[in-house]
Task: structure prediction
Amino acid sequence: MLATLYANSKSQKGGFKIYDFMPHDSEQPMTLEQAMESWA
Result:
């Protein structure tokens, strides 16, 4: 989590997620509520 915060604060565009720094773990699937919020 600290690597994500640092990378987002030092980069121009940001957009790093915690899973970018966790190669041993896959990203959790999006919930229905999160999908509905992203479509709006």
Observations:
- DSSP finds two helices and no strands in the chain.
- The two ends are 28 Å apart (CA to CA).
- Residues 4 and 18 are 6 Å apart (CA to CA).
